[in-house]
Amino acid sequence: MFTSVVPPNAARYLGTKVLARRVPVAHLELMPPRSGTRYYFNDLKKDEMLGIILSNKSFDSSLIKYDSNYFTTTSCDEANQVSLLKLVMAIKPSIKNAFEIGCGQGEFVELLRKSGIDATGCDPVFRGCQPGITATTFEQSPQQHSNLFILRCVLPHLERPFELIDKIFELNPQSQILFTFPNISWIFKTGTWASLSHDHVHYFSLSEIGRRYQLLRGGKYSAGEWSFCLIRSQNFQLQNRALNPDPEKVEVLREKFRQLQSKKDRFMKSIELEKRRIVIWGGLVKELTSDYTLVYWA
């Protein structure tokens, strides 16, 4: 549906031009799940795909690196954090504490604490020294129990995202989980093809998530760029929730991707006609994706 040459990790800080040029090439090939056995992401089965509307068929986990160059700070995204904080504060009476998985450098955890919420977190690339935050994955974290778990743009990076969700509910059956993910409709609407990245393995649908879990709240924030879900566990019965995508919806997706691909191609052709030196301002997700597209444009 949509193909592109992109950096493996979009959120990496590269201090020099030499380091930037050494970053390997990754590929983006977004496809919808299909009914039957014609296509699922890698070896995921029907029940593992329910809730997912798009996957990067060319995702290569061997290219992903979470090291000191992985950019996780969100201090520059204060408006986004404030919007999410309002969602948390709306359910504050029903929670005693919160645990953020993939908390970056702990900015949102600190914001929760300042708002009167007992918050902790974990992230394997955490480099700070704040108490209650560990440089681990959730599976390795000494703290695995909470009333509310928060995952900001974590699930899109996981090949099997619902394994983590189900593990949380297994350990905390009465807990709530608030997670966010890019809103693919916003990308279509704005034509922001550079927002599509290799390490966003999956894209999700609010309605499909509601078929898998008890959807307490769901919607969009940050001018529609992001979606959020607040969920509780429920008994998942595959036989009643089979993965049978509507062919008409799949065709609508195809058309939207054709338009997005066309916009990208027109942009590249217009750049080809430029005889001046091109400078891309910025060095993160959209800028790196644009840079790779320019370098590898054939």
What descriptive keywords fit this protein?
298 residues; alpha/beta; Rossmann fold; seven-stranded mixed β-sheet; disordered C terminus
Describe this structure as you would to a colleague.
The chain has a 7-stranded mixed β-sheet with strand order 6-5-4-7-8-11-10, with helices on both faces. The chain has a 4-stranded antiparallel β-sheet with strand order 1-2-3-9. The protein has 9 helices and 11 strands. The longest helix is centred in the last third of the chain and has 26 residues, at 247-272. The chain has helices spanning 17-22, 46-49, 78-90, 107-114, 161-171, 184-190, 206-212, 247-272, 285-296; strands at 2-6, 26-31, 52-56, 97-101, 118-122, 133-134, 148-152, 176-182, 202-204, 214-221, 226-232. Residues 35-39, 238-242 and 294-298 have low confidence and may be disordered. It is an alpha/beta fold. It folds into 2 domains: 2-65 and 243-296, no CATH class; 78-237, Vaccinia Virus protein VP39 (Rossmann fold, 3-Layer(aba) Sandwich).
Q: What's the helix and strand layout?
A:
Elements: E1 2-6, H1 17-22, E2 26-31, H2 46-49, E3 52-56, H3 78-90, E4 97-101, H4 107-114, E5 118-122, E6 133-134, E7 148-152, H5 161-171, E8 176-182, H6 184-190, E9 202-204, H7 206-212, E10 214-221, E11 226-232, H8 247-272, H9 285-296
Parallel strand pairs: 4-5, 4-7, 5-6, 7-8
Antiparallel strand pairs: 1-2, 2-3, 3-9, 8-11, 10-11
**Beta-strand segment tally:** 11
H/I helix tally: 9
Strand line-up of the largest beta sheet: 6-5-4-7-8-11-10
**Largest sheet geometry:** 7 strands, mixed
CATH topology name of the largest domain, in short, is Rossmann fold
Shape: globular
Structural class: alpha/beta
Strand/helix succession: EHEHEHEHEEEHEHEHEEHH
CATH architecture identity of the largest domain: 3-Layer(aba) Sandwich
What is the terminal separation in angstroms? 19 Å
- Report the sheet-strand fraction: 15-25%
Number of domains: 2
From the alpha-carbon coordinates, what is the Rg to the nearest angstrom? 20 Å
Average pLDDT across residues? 81
* The level-1 CATH class of the largest domain: Alpha Beta
Binned, the helix content reads 25-40%
User: Which segments are poorly predicted (pLDDT under 50) over 5 or more consecutive residues?
Assistant: 35-39, 238-242, 294-298
CATH H-level superfamily title of the largest domain: Vaccinia Virus protein VP39
